[in-house]
Write a structure and sequence with these properties.
Order of helices and strands: EEE
Strand content: 25-35%
Radius of gyration: 16 Å
Helix content: under 10%
Oligomer: single chain
Largest sheet: 3 strands, antiparallel
Structural class: mainly beta
Number of strands: 3
Number of helices: 0
Strand order of the largest sheet: 2-1-3
Length: 99
C-alpha cells in the first residue's frame, strides 16, 4: 500500500524547442506547480494552456522537442506526461502550432 504522506507537490518546467541539425532553437519555456490530490486519488490532473512562443523555423528533418523537468520532489513519478493514459483519465500531450 502506498503511503500518501510521502506524496509531495512538484514544480514542473516545460520547454518546447525545434531541433535542426542537432541544434535546439527554444520556442517557449514555462513553470507550473502541481499539488497532490486529496486522499488516494491518482487520476490525471487536467492541464491545458495556450503558451506564447517564438516563431518556429522549419527545415527538412527538423524535430519538435518537448522537455519537462521536475523540481522540489524526490519521487520519480511525481509527474507523468500522460497521466497513465485513459485508465486514469489521462491523455497523450499534444501541441498545436500555427501554420
Amino acid at each position: 500500500m502506498l503511503d500518501c504522506a510521502v506524496i509531495k507537490s512538484v514544480d514542473m518546467t516545460f520547454e518546447l524547442a525545434v531541433r535542426t541539425a542537432g541544434v535546439d532553437a527554444p520556442l517557449a519555456q514555462w513553470t507550473t506547480h502541481f499539488d497532490p490530490k486529496p486522499g488516494v486519488d491518482f487520476s490525471a490532473t487536467a492541464y491545458e494552456l495556450d503558451q506564447p512562443a517564438s516563431e518556429a523555423v522549419y527545415a527538412p528533418g527538423a524535430q519538435l522537442i518537448f522537455r519537462y523537468t521536475a523540481a522540489n520532489t524526490t519521487s520519480a513519478t511525481a509527474w507523468v506526461p500522460n497521466g497513465d493514459g485513459a485508465t486514469n483519465d489521462g491523455r497523450i500531450p499534444s501541441f498545436t502550432l500555427p501554420r
